[in-house]
Amino acid sequence: MAVTDVIGGSGGRGSGGPWRNWAGNVTARPARTVAPASTEELAAAIRAAATDGLPVKAAGTGHSFTPAAATDGLLIRPERLTGIRGIDRAAGTVTVAAGTPLKHLNQTLSAHGLSLTNMGDIMEQTVSGATSTGTHGTGRDSASIAAQITALELVTADGSVLRCSAEENPKVFAGARLGLGALGVVSELTLAVEPEFLLTAREEPMPFDEVTGRFDELVAENEHFEFYWFPHTGNCNTKRNNRSQGPAAPPGRVSGWIEDELLSNGVFQVACAVGRAVPAAIPGIAKISSRALSARAYTDIPYKVFTSPRRVRFVEMEYALPRTAAVEALGALKALVERSDFKISFPVEVRTAPADDIALSTASGRDTVYVAVHMYRGTPHQEYFGAAERIMTAHEGRPHWGKLHTRDAEYLAGVYPRFGEFTALRDRLDPERRFANGYLRQVLGE
User: What is the pTM of this model?
Assistant: First the structure.
């Protein structure tokens, strides 16, 4: 049984070239790079790595800003472990190979008249990469993609294949739905789906003071609420997504292109580049940018409403806070920008999620607000992110596993009540730390 080497032919033992993430802030130089096409080939590659004493990590499409997938051992690439393996309409599930891009999953489900209940705002990631790092959207009642998993297949450190669900290996299932790649390599996932529905999106500018003053009301009254605050201004852009009886009324071809491509990507790219070259211009650019997007409403199928293209490259830090801390933390962040010399060209994104029961989910056991800060790629971000992080950790914030942060296992054990449950499971499944890397040593300990 051959394992195809992405870099150097067949056999799986070639020297791997460098691997970089989407933002370009993480580079790894694996000793070996393979792209298995089946669970059996994946298991064989992990057993071969163990024989050779190599650590193992699986990479998705590199949309994490942390080095979660970095390794100097065996890097498993996703591009051949793809495809829909089955749709069960009676059970309301889809089973998909772990390396399948979310974009392909969404399009295939739509072709069958089905949809995920909720999703994040981009769909370039692989299904397992997104779920393993806790990718989420925004929702009053519906949670992250990982919370929609009903079963999974996990290849462990000795090459064994575990089927996991609430009924089969339930303790492993409880951790592996969002496992950071620490328990093994996910080869297959089964997700809950439902008949495709329509969402009406209402996008509307709103002052910062009004959004924060009405925050609880806006979250309670809408199935999916989020907003963007533009630093150096008192301006926000809000988005409310709610189910609709239709009819479908997608954005017009020209108006949609103006909003989603020209303004959100093209003009914004130019504005960020100018701001990087001339930081003093950023506050003025922010005031113009925050007024450029006008109110609009449209109705379409879920993935066309939830997701949007992201062509401007950036780095990001996001923290999950108790929902009750939202307004205080946002006020502190706005005050920080106003009293500092920071020049912030990217808006701050705010979303919500209900509590879930996944051990390492950022929404584990508590209703959650997410506050994400961004900086244009190539712009110094450390001081701004560090100051924002101090605000977030003052509210028992939990960092997104795939986004920049400085937290370690000691801190994380204090904000995740089930942290010890997960690390005990890791000790049982990977006692030799076959799946460890520098990032996991930081966040989970040795």
Answer: 0.92
- Residue 118 has, within 13 A of its CA and on its CB side, a CA count of 25
CA distances from 316 to 6, 124, 138 (A): 29, 16, 17
Question: Which of 314, 313, 205, 312 lies closest to 268, judged by CA?
Answer: 312
Q: Compute the distance between CA of residue 184 and CA of residue 186 in angstroms, rounded to an integer.
A: 6
* 362-386 pLDDT tens trace: 999 999 999 999 998 888 999 999 9
Query: In this structure, are residues 191 and 149 in contact, taking their beta carbons and an 8 Å threshold?
Result: yes
What are the start-end ranges of the E strands in 159-210? 161-165, 185-192, 194-195, 198-207
Alpha-carbon distances of 36 from 87, 123, 129, rounded to whole Å: 23, 22, 16
What does the pLDDT look like over 202-242, one tens digit per residue?
999 999 999 999 999 999 999 999 999 999 999 999 999 99
Length of the chain: 446
Nearest in space to 360 (alpha carbons), one of 443, 279, 280, 437? 443
